[in-house]
């Protein structure tokens, strides 16, 4: 039984494929650098009967967002005297300027939603964080642990902790000479570390060493862990099948299924392979390469049928 001669026989199938493609998330949406890691909200609310603090805070947020399109770290103040508010943002070192801006621009909204208007607040996303403090707010040590996350899955068998510790040792050695941001891997263990932008090289190394020690103690044989101190953070993830390749704006996926984790892996790899074969570019949001290929195939088939 032959195929129908109608030159438009392929349209129903084409529409089905089109619908599937439209519903399939691009690799850009698969990245999760704007996912919430933790919030830190001071217990004391900001007393602001005249609105002077709100005005200073609004000005601060505006400046930080504007700077995030051209810098990975920026610190500034707003207001005067007792109404002075100090604030900063920092993006992860492997984010592009566009991704940094997209990440930072979400933070003021999240601060207001999750904290309201306290005298100090800090919101950490996977790709960036922002904090502000009103003049006179009590300072804490740069080594203070703010948050930790350890995978609920442990690695069976001997040797994992040695591999992880070797990778973390390489992180300690490499971060001082890499502007406070460094990533590396060793035998399927990927590690990442970053210090706050105004921390000196020696203090950065000490902070990362402290975070590494906490990860070793707190996370034990967990296959993934993140430790956030006040002035630095580190993470590690174990990939039994090898550390996946990634784009500069994507983040690695923790093999853990517990709570907060980095994500890339399969969806990102498939998307990269798909783009190569079809001409699909998720950054443009265009699927013309796929459609053009389908139309060309259908057109050629119809010509052969005739």
Automatic annotation (TrEMBL):
<keyword id="KW-0965">Cell junction</keyword>
<dbReference type="InterPro" id="IPR038408">
    <property type="entry name" value="GNK2_sf"/>
</dbReference>
<keyword id="KW-0945">Host-virus interaction</keyword>
<keyword id="KW-0472">Membrane</keyword>
<dbReference type="GO" id="GO:0046739">
    <property type="term" value="P:transport of virus in multicellular host"/>
</dbReference>
<dbReference type="GO" id="GO:0005886">
    <property type="term" value="C:plasma membrane"/>
</dbReference>
<dbReference type="GO" id="GO:0009506">
    <property type="term" value="C:plasmodesma"/>
</dbReference>
<comment type="similarity">
    <text>Belongs to the cysteine-rich repeat secretory protein family. Plasmodesmata-located proteins (PDLD) subfamily.</text>
</comment>
<dbReference type="Pfam" id="PF01657">
    <property type="entry name" value="Stress-antifung"/>
</dbReference>
<feature type="domain" description="Gnk2-homologous">
    <location>
        <begin position="34"/>
        <end position="137"/>
    </location>
</feature>
<dbReference type="InterPro" id="IPR051378">
    <property type="entry name" value="Cell2Cell_Antifungal"/>
</dbReference>
<keyword id="KW-1133">Transmembrane helix</keyword>
<keyword id="KW-0677">Repeat</keyword>
<keyword id="KW-0732">Signal</keyword>
<dbReference type="GO" id="GO:0010497">
    <property type="term" value="P:plasmodesmata-mediated intercellular transport"/>
</dbReference>
<dbReference type="InterPro" id="IPR002902">
    <property type="entry name" value="GNK2"/>
</dbReference>
<protein>
    <submittedName>
        <fullName>Plasmodesmata-located protein 2</fullName>
    </submittedName>
</protein>
<keyword id="KW-0813">Transport</keyword>
<feature type="signal peptide">
    <location>
        <begin position="1"/>
        <end position="29"/>
    </location>
</feature>
<keyword id="KW-1015">Disulfide bond</keyword>
<keyword id="KW-1003">Cell membrane</keyword>
<feature type="domain" description="Gnk2-homologous">
    <location>
        <begin position="142"/>
        <end position="241"/>
    </location>
</feature>
<keyword id="KW-0812">Transmembrane</keyword>
């Amino acid at each position: 039984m032959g195929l129908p001669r109608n030159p438009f026989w392929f349209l129903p199938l084409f529409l089905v494929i089109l619908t599937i493609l439209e519903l399939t998330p691009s690799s850009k949406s698969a990245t999760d650098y704007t996912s919430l890691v933790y919030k830190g909200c001071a217990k004391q609310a900001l007393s602001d009967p005249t609105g002077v603090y709100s005005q200073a805070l609004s000005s601060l947020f505006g400046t930080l967002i504007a700077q995030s399109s051209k810098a990975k770290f920026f610190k500034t103040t707003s207001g005067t005297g007792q109404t002075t508010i100090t604030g900063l943002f920092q993006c992860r070192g492997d984010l592009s300027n566009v991704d940094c801006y997209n990440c930072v621009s979400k933070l003021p909204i999240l601060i207001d939603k999750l904290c309201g208007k306290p005298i100090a607040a800090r919101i950490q996303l996977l790709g960036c964080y922002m904090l502000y403090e009103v003049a006179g707010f009590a300072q804490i040590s740069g080594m203070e642990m703010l948050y930790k996350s350890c995978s609920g899955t442990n690695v069976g068998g001997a040797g994992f902790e040695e591999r992880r510790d070797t990778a973390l040792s390489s992180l300690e050695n490499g971060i001082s000479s890499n502007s406070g941001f460094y990533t590396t891997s060793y035998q399927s263990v990927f590690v990442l570390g970053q210090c706050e932008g105004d921390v000196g090289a020696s203090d950065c190394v000490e902070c990362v060493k402290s975070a590494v020690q906490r990860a070793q103690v707190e996370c034990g044989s967990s296959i993934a862990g993140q430790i956030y101190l006040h002035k630095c953070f580190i993470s590690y993830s174990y990939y039994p099948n090898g550390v996946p390749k990634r784009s500069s704006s994507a983040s690695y996926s923790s093999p853990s299924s517990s709570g907060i984790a980095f994500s890339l892996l399969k969806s990102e790899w498939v998307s990269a392979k798909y783009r190569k074969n079809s001409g699909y570019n998720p950054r443009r949001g265009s699927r013309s390469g796929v459609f053009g290929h389908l139309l060309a195939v259908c057109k050629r088939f119809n010509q052969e049928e005739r």
